Each structure stands twice: as C-alpha cells, then as structure tokens.
C-alpha cells in the first residue's frame, strides 16, 4: 500500500510502488489480479512479481498524448477489467489515471444493459461523487466526458421485451447504432405489433428474425412479421427441422451492421436449440430454453435429453466469460437476466453432477405443455397460420 492507495469496492487504486510494497500485496493474499496502466518493464514494474505469484496480470498502457488521453483505449481498458478476477489492483504512477479508468468502468458496468447505457457525463459525475483524483485533473475529466459520449453513441441498441399475453416469453431486439440494422430473437405472435412499433420508434431496420428453437409454449411471431415486412428473413437452426429462410449451423455468425451474434448449438431441451452470443454490452448470451435463470427447459418432450442438455450448458454456455449476461427465453418470476457466474454457482440443477441432473430432470412431474399441440406444428412452419 502507498499514500496514493484508495479502495473502492473490489478495486484498489495505487500509485507508484516499491518492490516491497508490491510484495506485501502479494503475500497478504487479498488481491487476485493486477492491471498496470504503464508500459510493462519500467522501473519497479510489478509485472514479474505479480505473475510469478500466480496472480492474473494485465497491462494496458494508458498514456497522455499530445491531443490528450485517447478515447480509443476505453474499450480495451473495460475488457481488461472484465477479464480479471477481483479484488484487483489498478496502478499507474500517481493513481490518477487509475481512478479515471475505474470511474469509466463502474459507469459502464453498473448501467443496466436493458436501459440507455452511460448517460452523457455519467463517468465524470461518478468520479466527482466518489471524490476520485481524476475529477480534479482537467485532461482526465475531459477524457471521461468524451468516453461517455462515444460509448453512448456506439453501444448496441438493446431492448428486452416481455410477452404479456401469457407465455412469459422474452423477445430481444438488438440494433446496430451506425447502420440501424437490427435483429429480433424469439418474437411471440400476439406481440408482433408491439415489437415492430419498438423497432420503428428506434428507427431500426429489421433484417432477421431468429428463433432459439421450435417453441412448444407459444406460437412464434416470425411468420406474421414476414407478412407485414416482406424484406425480413427468418432464421432457425438447421437441426430444428423447422421452416425458415435461412438455416443456421453452429459457429456461424448472424451479422447486422457492424455487429453479430454467434450461433452455439445447445441441444437437450430440443434437438435444434441454439444459444446466440453477442460480444456487445460486456457480453450477452441469449440462451433460449437451454438455460433459464436458476433453471433450465424441460427435457421430457420434443427430443429432450437431460444428458445432452447438461453437456450443452457446460460446454457452450458455462465456458463463456463469467461476466457475460444470460438472457433466457422465459422467466416466470419477474427476473430479467442473470450472469454466467451466477448460473455456474447458483443454478439449483446445473451445479449438480450429470447423474444428479438427470435424476432431477426425469422426476420433475410437469404437466403436459398446454399449447404444445397447437404451437409445435405452427412453429415448424414459421408460425404462419392460414
Ligand atoms: Fe421451449
């Protein structure tokens, strides 16, 4: 620790440290990682001591240029902090730059991805509220203001929409702010007008409608949207066996403007279930019914298999960075999202062994799905009803 030390939650801001001070952080065992904002290898660089102690170490030089601090570095600083386990030491020569990076990070991460991200000026306001050194340094204060503005402009447009007609389905609208191209995941027939109105309000051009799987509990809005907007193309996994304009294979990317979601095969609830993964907004996984908040989809209908579902979730979803948010196809308790870490540690079914999981899933004793006889045949043909 030094005179510059400042602790904010799980982050420790530090200035220049002597080797003995670095060593005391390591030997006390209270920190798990270190982010250095100076070029690696300078005088008294903590890199080798931190690395050899087995702590996670990252170095993202954050240095003032003639035109000021570069806003391009904002995303790499945020990604570096995302990847590091906490508590984390953030260090530079005086802890000033470290405090600016922290203010930006907290602003960006604490905002709810379902709302507008990073209100203009929010990072600087937070730095002032926490009385961080960066708020008193004009070049860092203006960096914070510029970063907030740029991030607001370039962040993914995102809306989580809920089916109020009865199925408790979440439909997700993702839009690229530059091109205005957008995709819609898992629309519900009864909510199509609402979904299109939201896209229109945001001046988005709907390009693709994606389904995570052939649903048994509601009729998809895909066909109705295509009737209203003939330019829209439908997508579903090839393994689903359902009709669509474009069939998706694992590993493919669905692009909209400069954004994309990656297709990951997560069968087990049905053969054709996929999870769509976005790297935007800190990482998001649209898991369909493969993984729900503190639960998972049933495995007793539509080619369900508990063993397959267990393997899918562990290999394709729990392997994502733990900070990635999990957005399921449903929630029946008013919850909006979870994270990979939360489900890895708190999901009452998927924290168990494969054998225990199978036993739980085989003994759920759930009633026959109410709408399955109408929904599955309709969804096999995009939800179009004559
Ligand atoms: Fe389902």
TrEMBL record:
Q: Record's InterPro entries?
A: Metallo-B-lactamas (IPR001279), Mito_Persulfide_Diox (IPR051682), POD-like_MBL-fold (IPR044528), Prot-tyrosine_phosphatase-like (IPR029021), RibonucZ/Hydroxyglut_hydro (IPR036866)
Locations listed in the record: Mitochondrion
Q: Which GO terms describe its cellular component?
A: mitochondrion
Domain named Metallo-beta-lactamase is located at 168-330
Q: Would the keyword GTP-binding turn up in this protein's UniProt record?
A: no
- Chain segments annotated as transmembrane: none
The catalysed reaction is: S-sulfanylglutathione + O2 + H2O = sulfite + glutathione + 2 H(+)
Q: Does the keyword Signal apply?
A: no
What is any one GO biological process for this UniProt entry? glutathione metabolic process
Family matches, as SMART domains? Lactamase_B
List cofactor names only: Fe(2+)
For this UniProt record, give its keywords in alphabetical order, as a comma-separated list. Acetylation, Dioxygenase, Iron, Metal-binding, Mitochondrion, Oxidoreductase, Transit peptide
EC number of the protein: 1.13.11.18
Record GO terms (molecular function):
metal ion binding; sulfur dioxygenase activity
The similarity comment for this entry is:
Belongs to the metallo-beta-lactamase superfamily. Glyoxalase II family.
Q: What is this protein called?
A: persulfide dioxygenase
